[in-house]
Every structure is written in C-alpha cells, then in structure tokens.
C-alpha cells in the first residue's frame, strides 16, 4: 500500500464511489543523457520534465506479484502507443527522444482535480528500441510509435552478487538495506525499508552468488515480506500477509462488473515443508575407527622418541583436518632383537583444542632405556684397557714379573672383552614399533531444521508438497508460524479469481480488498488507459480469495 | 548442490547430515516400517551420484524380514567411508517398498503440524456445506463428511535422534534399537 498518501483525498473519494468519473492520465519523460531514474525518484533530476501526454494514444499497464511462482515476472511493465511527431513541442516524439533508458512516469487522476494531485501509477524506464511506422498510406494518416517501459526491478534481474557478511544479532533490515545500497547502487533515500525486528541468528550470514533481488527476498522472507519497487520507484518491503487489513472495502458490488473464478488445472499444494538451519552447533559422531598409523624405528642412537601425529581425512588433504575424541594408542607390533621391552611404555598425548573435546592430533612418546653417556664410558674403558694390554705386551711385563703379571694381564683382557661386548650390545639395541591411533571422529555441523505444515487427514497419495529452504531461518517456532502462513498461501492459490471493476489507481498488487463478504489478495492488475475506448476506466484484477 | 546437505563450518568436508525426507504422520501407521541399513557397498552411478547397495531388515515385530540389495541413491559429495543408516521405508498395499525417509548420523529437528482448513482461516477451501439443524458438514453429493474443517491442530515432533552403531543383527532383539514409527515420534 505505497499510495497511502492519497487516501482521503478528493481522488480517493471519486475512485471509491460510483459517482461520475472523468478519468485522465499524464505521461512524463526525462532526458536519459542528463538524469537518471534515481534522480527522478529522489526529485532532483537535472533534466526538465517533458509532458508527452498529448501524443499518447493508449497505455497498456500491467503489474504482477513477484516471488510467488518460479516464472513470476519481477517487473511491472507498460506498453505505450503514441503519435509520431517530429514537430511536437517542447520535444519531438520520435525514436530520438524515446530512447532506451529514458525515465518515464505515468500518472492517473480526474480531469476535475489539479494535475499535481494525480497519482503516480508507474515509474520506470523505456526499454529497447521503439516500433515506428515509417511509411503509411494515405499520407495524412497518423504515424504511430510504440514503446515499452519496465519498472526499476528490470535493471537488477541479472545482477548476481556476493554481499557482505553479517554477524549474529544484527537486524535483517540492515542486511537488506546495505545490500541495496552497495550492490544495487541505490541511494538510502530511495529505500523505504527499515528494521524488521528479526535478528540474524548465525555467527556469520551472507548472500553468496545470488541474484540481488532474490537474495533480498530470501532475507525478507523471514518476516513475510518481499522486495519490490513501488509505483513511485522507491524500493520497499511489501507485506505479503494474507490477513492484513483490506485497503479497500466495498460492502456492495456497485463498482464490480464481474468476478470469475479461474481454472487452476494444477493440483494445489496441501503440504509445505520449510527448511531452516539451526544456529547452534551439533556434534555428529562416527563409530570409533583408526585415525592414523605408522611405524617408528628407534634404539641406541636416541634416549627418547617424540613423534608428532596429526589426523587427516585421506590422501591429498592437509594434516590435522580430522576432528576426533576419546583417542587412544594401540601398539600393533614391536620388532626388536636385543631391544626387549623397547617402546612397551609408549605413551599417547592428545592435543585437545579449545572446545575441550576436539583432538586433531597428538604425540607418541617413549624412552629407549639407553643412556648416551654409558657409550662414552664403555669406549673410554675399552680404550684404556686396550692401551694397558698393548703397553704390557710392548715391555714384555709377563717375562719380567712372571705369574702375577699373567693374572693381571688375563684380568685386563677379560675386562676389555666385557667392555667390547657391552658396546656391541648397546649398538644392537634398536627396534621398530608399529603403531595405530584410534578414536571417535566427529564433526560440528549446523543441524537442519524442518517444519512441515499440512492439511490434516491426508492419505499418502493425496499429499502434494512443496519444499522451501531459507538458511536465514533458525528458530523452529518461527518456522512453524511461517510454514502455516505459507500453507494457507498455497491453498488460496487454488482459489484464483479475475475481477473486472472500475479502475481504482490506489489499489496495488499485494493489497487486500474486500468485496461483499469476501476478501481478495491482489496478484496482478492490468488496465488499458486509452482515450475514448470502452476499456478506459476499467481494470482487471487477478486475486486469490483469502476469506 | 543438493539442498539436503549442509556443510560443516569452517570449510571442512561435506558431511552427511540430511533431513528426514517425506514423512507420513497421522495415517497408515501400519505401513511404516523401521529399517536399518548396514554394510553398504558404494559405487558412483552414471550421473556421478553415489549409490550404495545394502541389506535392510524390517524393524517391526511382526512380519520381519530381510530385504536384500536395496539400492539407495545417495547425493553424496566427498568421501563416504562407513556408517550405519537408519532409514524409514513405506510399504505400499501392493508390497512395493519405497524409501520415504533417510537419516544418516543425525536427524534434523522435524516438526509436522497438520491444520484444518478452518484453523487456517480458509474453511471454504474444504468445499463443504454446514447444516445448522444437524450441526454437521456435508459434501456436495449430500453425504455427511468425515472431514471437519475446524478440526484441532495436530502437531508431532520427531527426535533429533542419533542411533549410533546399529548392527543389522541388533534389530528384532532389542526394541530400543528398533527404528520403528513409535520410536521416531514423540507425543502425538
């Protein structure tokens, strides 16, 4: 209901009654080379406004609801047929002035009311090149030029963005507005979206690789709104609530020419599955399995072993990328000849992460039982005894001292051999440990939330379900409420009507009107504004019956 | 990317956390069978989706039986190595088994709420006529309708339930490990 400023005016009184009407319209354009559509919307165009109403023969205007079906047009469109006039004042009405990108506004009013009070029913830009009748017989016939105009949404239908990331607790209204400012190049004064009283629930939320209008729709979906450009060209969050108050109440059907229920050949969805994403992390565990394995060769050459181990998902992935808990070391096999007992006391020291349970790796450690200093002692001892032996032989001490020398020499030889054997044993002390680390792998994930609203007492074959997903939703209670609303929406789509009634330019798409005892939610408005034709002053409204 | 899947935070590998698919709540309970799949044998199909073949055992007390070589299409990305999968299957009247729900290591928090047309504010959608004299609803053929457009709202919640290491041999011996309808539904 973007035209609420006009409610209560003289025009409002005329259009809500069955009193005599003198409908009028006005069409204005601006020079696209000197001003932009934004300037027009904000009321600061550099170009003068050109009134080309006099040359307009007819306007076919259509506004359609957006984001309801996959093939919904996001845009409103107008087709305008004009008299071709090179000598028109103040500007010629030709293909040289009706250029692609030309800002255009269409107004409706009543001839008895001042033009400045008329209602702007369309703001957009001309699109493409016009159709021009270049040669017409007889020569006195009017040459016509036909142009198409689209609303501002058309400029963004192919704009794919990766927007900013928003932290937990920020309002989604801020995300919508900042996205529009930064990625649609809109001025804040062109945006009539405020805080939506719905805080972002996840640590980080971001639109990624999505069409910008669809992305903002995803954001506003949480509060039942959708983005659109209103008839004045402002970017607004249209309320799609089916139960909102009616903007028009016609207790009698004086203004209505026909109400026709239209055929809906497709079955109606009677079940809505709405998926969201929990904002708290859940743990997903697997069963205990081997996380890492390997072997360690150690022995006399080191006193202790310290082997770092990291868990990986598999070949090609970085180490330490696998999360597990309750890890333990298993010794599969120890190969050792003289190193009996090697690595029997091997110990596993997991490195626990900040969360207190996650282990990405750890350290295997054990002592070899070998003292490096002993090797030096043995070598020095053997060298000393060998020296003694050589000295004794050199001076032939046995011949000099006899038996006592023989006994001493034998003792030295035994001690020397013992030292040599000890060295050989030390150098043979080594072995290989085959190890495995087991644990329970797990992952932190955001759990998917699912709320299903469906009509009761349906059999399997009767269920016709539609599935919607929105990762900005994180509260199952909110999702329940949204799913209920969406179910009602799907049901009433099967109760579509086409209402032909006297034109009421204050009615918008997404408005609710009440006719008689029923209420209708408007999904499209089509009208032909043309001088002196039977269709002038009549509009065709497509709507869902909601009550 | 199939929308059932979610990513672990921080850009880790894709993990199999999948929603319970289509659920049937307040009807045909006798057609809902609790099943557990085990010992899957994985293979990629022609579309590049991962499939696995496994044996599943019907988890209801009566009419237990082993169904062999059930092919389950798995929308997996990344590497799936080993897990046990509780699944819910529906058996049609003709005996055809259709998998209507799958759940891997964790189930989502699922709420199913069934509404009447009246509770949604659109009783006219029911296409019924109310007769004040009899205080009953009638269909267009003049018969009394069993459908009450103003029936109470009915809500069910499924467990966010983790079965752990369920062996195919466990089923039928311990009811607590039996993934039957009754164990999946809280309240209702």
Report on this model:
The complex is a heterodimer of chains A (547) and B (188). Chain A has 547 residues and is α+β, with helices and mostly antiparallel strands. Among the domains of chain A are: 4-155 and 251-264 and 494-540, Roll (Phage tail proteins - horseshoe like beta roll fold); 160-238, Phage tail protein beta-alpha-beta fold; 372-427. Helices cover 20% and strands 38% of the residues of chain A. Chain A is built from 8 helices and 28 strands. Chain A has helices at 10-16, 37-42, 172-183, 212-221, 372-394, 397-401, 403-428, 476-493; strands at 23-29, 50-51, 56-64, 77-83, 103-110, 119-132, 144-151, 160-161, 165-167, 191-192, 204-206, 210-211, 225-229, 235-239, 248-250, 256-261, 271-285, 289-299, 304-310, 324-336, 347-352, 359-367, 430-455, 465-469, 496-502, 512-515, 518-530, 538-545. The model of chain A has no long low-confidence stretch (mean pLDDT 87). Chain B has one helix spanning 181-184; strands at residues 6-7, 14-15, 32-44, 50-58, 66-74, 85-91, 97-102, 109-115, 129-131, 136-138, 154-158, 185-186. A 5-stranded antiparallel beta sheet of chain B has the order 5-4-3-6-7, with no helix packed on it. In chain B, strands 8-11-12 form a 3-stranded antiparallel beta sheet. In chain B, strands 1-2 form a two-stranded antiparallel ribbon. Chains A and B meet through strand 17, strand 23 and helix 8 of A and strand 1 and strand 8 of B. Strand 23 (430-455) of chain A pairs parallel with strand 8 (109-115) of chain B.
């Amino acid at each position: 209901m973007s035209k609420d400023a006009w409610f209560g005016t003289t025009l409002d009184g005329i259009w809500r009654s069955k009193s005599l009407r003198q409908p009028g319209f006005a069409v204005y354009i601006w020079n696209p080379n000197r001003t932009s559509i934004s300037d027009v919307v904000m009321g600061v165009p550099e170009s003068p406004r050109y009134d080309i109403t006099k040359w307009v023969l007819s306007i076919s205007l259509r506004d359609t609801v957006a984001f309801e079906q996959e093939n919904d047009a996001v845009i409103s469109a107008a087709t305008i047929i004009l008299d071709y006039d090179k000598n028109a004042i103040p500007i010629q009405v030709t293909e040289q002035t009706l250029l692609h990108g030309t800002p255009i506004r269409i107004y409706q009013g009543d001839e008895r009311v001042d033009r400045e009070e008329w209602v702007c029913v369309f703001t957009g830009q001309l699109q493409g090149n016009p159709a021009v009748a270049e040669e017409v017989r007889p020569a006195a016939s009017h040459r016509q030029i036909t142009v198409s105009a689209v609303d501002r949404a058309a400029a963004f239908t192919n704009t794919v963005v990766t927007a900013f990331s928003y932290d937990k607790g920020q309002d989604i209204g801020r995300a919508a507005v900042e996205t529009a400012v930064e990625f649609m190049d809109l001025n804040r004064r062109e945006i009539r979206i405020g805080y939506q009283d719905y805080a972002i629930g996840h640590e980080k939320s971001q639109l990624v690789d999505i069409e910008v209008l669809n992305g903002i729709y995803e954001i506003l979906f949480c509060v039942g709104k959708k983005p659109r450009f209103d008839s004045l060209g402002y970017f607004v969050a249209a309320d799609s609530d089916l139960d909102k108050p009616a903007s028009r109440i016609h207790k009698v059907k004086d203004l209505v020419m026909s109400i026709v229920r239209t055929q809906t050949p497709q079955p109606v969805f009677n079940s809505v599955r709405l998926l969201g994403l929990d904002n708290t992390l859940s743990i997903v565990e697997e069963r205990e399995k081997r996380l890492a394995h390997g072997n360690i060769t150690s022995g006399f050459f080191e006193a202790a072993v310290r082997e770092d181990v990291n868990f990986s998902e598999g070949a090609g992935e970085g180490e330490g990328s696998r999360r597990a808990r309750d890890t333990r070391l298993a010794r599969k096999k120890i190969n050792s000849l003289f190193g009996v007992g090697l690595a029997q006391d091997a110990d596993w020291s997991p490195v626990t992460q900040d969360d207190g349970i996650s282990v990405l790796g750890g350290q295997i450690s054990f002592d070899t039982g070998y003292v490096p200093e002993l090797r030096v002692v043995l070598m020095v001892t053997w060298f000393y005894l060998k020296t003694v032996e050589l000295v004794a032989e050199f001076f032939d001490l046995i011949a000099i001292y006899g038996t006592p020398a023989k006994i001493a020499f034998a003792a030295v030889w035994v001690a020397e051999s013992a030292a040599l054997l000890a060295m050989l044993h030390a150098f043979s002390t080594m072995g290989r440990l085959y190890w495995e680390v087991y644990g329970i792998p797990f992952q932190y994930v955001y759990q998917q939330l699912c709320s299903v609203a469906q009509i009761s007492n349906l059999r399997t074959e009767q269920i016709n379900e539609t599935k919607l997903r929105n990762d900005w939703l994180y509260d199952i209670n909110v999702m329940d409420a949204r799913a209920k609303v969406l179910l009602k929406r799907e049901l009433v789509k099967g109760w579509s009507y086409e209402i032909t009634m006297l034109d009421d330019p204050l009615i918008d798409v997404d408005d609710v009107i009440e006719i008689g005892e029923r209420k209708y939610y408007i999904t499209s408005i089509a009208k032909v504004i043309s001088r002196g034709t039977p269709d002038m002053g009549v509009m065709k409204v497509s709507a869902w019956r909601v009550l | 990317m199939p929308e059932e899947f979610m990513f672990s935070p921080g850009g880790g590998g894709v993990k199999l956390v999948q929603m319970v698919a289509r659920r049937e709540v307040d009807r045909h309970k006798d057609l809902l069978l609790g099943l557990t799949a085990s010992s899957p044998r994985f293979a990629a199909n022609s579309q590049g989706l991962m499939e696995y073949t496994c044996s599943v055992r019907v988890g209801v007390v009566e009419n237990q039986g082993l169904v062999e070589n059930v092919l389950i299409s798995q929308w997996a990305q990344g590497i799936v190595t080993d897990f046990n999968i509780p699944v819910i299957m529906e058996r049609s009247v003709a005996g055809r088994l259709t998998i209507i729900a799958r759940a891997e290591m964790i189930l989502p928090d699922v709420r199913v709420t069934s509404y009447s047309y009246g509770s949604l504010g659109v009783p006219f959608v029911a296409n019924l006529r109310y007769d004040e004299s009899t205080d009953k609803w009638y269909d267009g053929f003049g018969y009394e309708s069993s459908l009450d457009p103003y029936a109470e709202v009915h809500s069910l919640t499924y467990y966010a339930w983790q079965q752990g290491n369920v062996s195919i041999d466990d089923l039928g011996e311990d009811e607590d490990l039996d993934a039957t309808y009754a164990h999946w539904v809280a309240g209702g």
